[in-house]
Amino acid sequence: MRQLEEISGPGDLRDLTLAEAEQLAGAIRRFLVEKVGRTGGHLGPNLGVVELTLALHRVFDSPRDRLLWDTGHQSYVHKILTGRAAAFDTLRQPGGLSGYPSRAESEHDLIENSHASTALSYADGLAKAYELRGVTDRAVVAVIGDGALTGGMAWEALNNIAAARHRPLVIVVNDNERSYAPTIGGLAVHLAALRTAPGYERLLERVQTQLPNIPVVGSPLYEVLHGVKKGLKDVLAPQGMFEDLGLKYVGPVDGHDLAALEAALASAKRFDGPVLVHCITEKGRGHLPAEQDELDRHHVVRPSSAGAGQPAAAKAYPSWTSVFGAELVSLAATRPDIVAVTAAMLEPTGLSEFARRYPERTFDVGIAEQHAMTSAAGLALGGLHPVVAVYATFLNRGFDQLLMDVALHRAPVTIALDRAGVTGDDGPSHNGMWDLSLLQLVPGVRVNAPRDAASLRRALAEAVAVDDGPTVIRYPKGATGPDIAAVDTDDGLDVLFRSGRADVLMVAVGPMAPICLEAAGRLVDDGYGVTVVDPRWVLPVPRRLLELAREHRLVATVEDNGCAGGVGSAVRHGLDQQGCYLPTRLFGLPQRFLDQGKRATLLADHGLNARHIAGTIAEDLLALRHDGAQDTVADGRLRAEQLAH
Ligand SMILES: Cc1ncc(C[n+]2csc(CCOP(=O)(O)OP(=O)(O)O)c2C)c(N)n1
Ligand SMILES: CC(=O)[C@@H](O)[C@H](O)COP(=O)(O)O
Ligand SMILES: [Mg+2]
């Protein structure tokens, strides 16, 4: 049998016997445990779809038939089977294999956004396009997890798909009963009912115990029994809401039984309308740690970044997530109105301890950020103070709800945006580099960007004390770092550094404070006067910050958000509104999708490093001097490029 690295594409799979394919599944499982155990990544979800992905590529003919992966974190097996096994040592590394489908990597990858609950919408659109263009020789297959199926978009799509009774489209529900944690809600209950139709289960049990021994896969007796089992399932298992919606329901199918999967998918392929194949899989299948640990079951951290080999400093400091979670538990002790809301990410957003202590005050709404926001508005209107914890990039999903349901009603909701700024490994759709731009548009919202753990604790305490509108706190992935004390305060602003003449005011947004202080040191060493200020509450721009800026020759803002519409833009806009045309320099991320990489490297590569910041500011100040402006800068002996090297 071929080595995995020799598999050039799905064509290599179709001449395998069932037994050989089963063997290949074992080899893939061992490969995943070895490779992903070293690189880090979504081991559990991919161990759960080994047989399913094999069956999909043996029944369908990718890339003519289009396979669409919802969220896409479970596409490693798909990558192995489409000729990319040899690249797995570079998984999620800079310049390496993406952790999600990637059009640049393969013609077998069509969609690469890793925000959940989108695949059915893509599939609906694609199927409509094929129908309109008279394309009838290819299938559209969307694979969606039970967790992603709790997302509102999925039901918007299902409503459309089910309406087109004669437009072929295959929906594969990969039901492993979990997102990170067990999937919540009525849908989970319904899927369970479909899974455990009593009659079918009992009979299956009896047949399997009566048999002297389980027939060999592929043997005639096996085929006969399989046919009987399948027929009984159709009779005994309830069809439920999917059939009521208008979808043909096929299942539940054992998602680790290759023959059953191939039979079900082949029948779905022949169906001339929308069909849903309900596959029952086990997340982390075949790998004990992934089967046992909730977080490990979803993804494993790259060992080298888990502690060993990390710079000593990073190991000594708590994660932003843990600081948030601990402070919320502390505040909640004396504030019974504080409740927590998560969108199926209780543990990754640091809410596990809160949930353990206050289960009745913890709401997991599923992968449903839109609902999270508006239900939080409802919680607030009901007299509570909800704290909604989501990753910054997923705020995008609930933006209109924040704007129109929370802010319009000035509802006292606090939103904790974890993974703000560059996250890195997960690639472009996970960087939290949009929130400050989006939030600038929201009337009445107050946004805090803490610079360290102490600031985060302080920000959260202040935020939950606000009762006349929404508050947002945004902080990055990973370890915090040493607390940075202010040398002074100025009407609510933290002055972190002040030296010499008022040449430049540097506005440090959140975790950019350390590189601002380093850049200030470079500038002062070369004769410039610098003030570094951390506004803490960065939006709306504090009045005092604008006044302070006007006392300087130049204002420079530094943020790990896209430049368009971030804090820097807001400062510039505020000055313009005051009729003050002070030179402003905005340091931030480029407004484009950033490839995967390490956070520190990506920040530095995009100019968020002390050397570039200091060099650019020096050039600006030099230019101001040559403009005949008042000579408040160094006597010119300094050359900007000296700073830059
Ligand atoms: C809109 C959105 N919210 C949250 C996430 C984070 N996330 C990634 S995978 C995942 C769980 C997905 O569960 P499921 O769809 O059942 O797939 P499984 O991991 O079980 O295979 C979540 C919540 C996301 N990718 N997109
Ligand atoms: C697929 C997905 O969206 C999450 O699993 C994400 O990969 C987790 O990111 P962190 O590793 O930053 O928690
Ligand atoms: Mg799942």
TrEMBL record:
The keyword Ligase does not apply. It comes from the Bacteria. Gene3D superfamilies: 3.40.50.920, 3.40.50.970. Binds 1 Mg(2+) ion per subunit. Binds 1 thiamine pyrophosphate per subunit. Pfam families: DXP_synthase_N (PF13292), Transket_pyr (PF02779), Transketolase_C (PF02780). GO terms for cellular component: cytosol. Homodimer. Catalyzes the acyloin condensation reaction between C atoms 2 and 3 of pyruvate and glyceraldehyde 3-phosphate to yield 1-deoxy-D-xylulose-5-phosphate (DXP). NCBIfam families: dxs (TIGR00204), PRK05444.2-2 (NF003933). This is 1-deoxy-D-xylulose-5-phosphate synthase. It comes from Micromonospora endophytica.
